[in-house]
């Protein structure tokens, strides 16, 4: 059950179950012109966050309310006096004091409800395997792709390439210059750039960096929901060098007005740095014509329902902020409110979940945002590091968490996890997917839009 609890405070999510929903039916394409039916599950050890970052003297029975109210134990290192706090730290503390009771009381209510259902009770799978440690080279490949000339606008207009054709065959694909779609009702395990990736059903993606986002604009889609997790600048990122950050001012260049439909819900993950939050609320959203409607909080807990960090820690907080807004183009302000109104978005709601042990893997928001968008909404994730069924995703690491090293793949003999018509097509010739970095001059080799299916 992906959504464990829903109440007036928010949700408790089973983040791993949310991922697994997209892989109930999966086919693996091999180099030997054969395919097999398999079951894909995201590795359980990635969500076995058992221990909170408290010292032994901080621990209390069962990780209950007393635990939730604990503050950080003083470090042995010399602490600066309060008067020595810089302006950013003072802002952070003021923001924390403003929302502290909301996070504390809401988390207690949600965790208590989850425990009554047998969830967040400390039980874990007995998985002793190490975490996946696949090194991601996708961003480097995107840098290489930048050496190629941009495809002409007219040539690229509304062109997509199909990952797996209707007859079950795969084809050569250019992941860097075209939006790639898996239109099938089943997930596909395919070889891309010499590595195997699991691609969810009814999904589309573009692998590129900030300077090569044009194919997404020319994709010809207007989205009703846009979620983004920008690579915010901070000292931790600079030290770790896990990924390259992006100056806040550069975010204004994102073509949100060209991608958003009228009344599109725009959701941005924001760090706990007040300057980033102010920038989104006061500069970024107004620049795009997006009106702020709510702030939500993702609260990270252990499998026992304890905060992963002390709530009052001066270093790391157990929560992150999401800013939600509605896009309203000035050109469409004559549209009546009855034609554009959506379900009002409640302010200060909580999303409680056990976080992934993998860096920067956020929980899917697809289930919690459903009530606030129309039934057949088109959804887009920017700066994505994974794919979601039914969504379009863009980023320079958009396939990172789709690598098979993050999944447990189990063969199934009866083919019950795929449609019968697909199971009957085992003998079709299916060459390996080999992405090509093609220039416009090479497009005549396979046509301007070679694999588009009407």
Automatic annotation (TrEMBL):
Gene Ontology CC annotations of this record: cytosol; nucleus
Pfam families with a match to the protein in the record: MT-A70 (PF05063)
Signal peptide as annotated in the record: none
SUPFAM superfamilies recorded: S-adenosyl-L-methionine-dependent methyltransferases
Location of the region described as Disordered in the Swiss-Prot/TrEMBL record: 58-90, 411-454
Coiled coil: none
PROSITE patterns per UniProt: MT_A70, N6_MTASE
InterPro entries given in the database record: DNA_methylase_N6_adenine_CS, MT-A70-like, SAM-dependent_MTases_sf
GO terms of biological process kind: methylation
GO molecular function: nucleic acid binding; RNA methyltransferase activity; site-specific DNA-methyltransferase (adenine-specific) activity
Family: Belongs to the MT-A70-like family.
PANTHER family: N(6)-ADENINE-SPECIFIC METHYLTRANSFERASE METTL4, N6-ADENOSINE-METHYLTRANSFERASE
Protein name (record): Methyltransferase-like protein 4
Species in which this protein is naturally found: Perca flavescens
Classification lineage: Eukaryota, Metazoa, Chordata, Craniata, Vertebrata
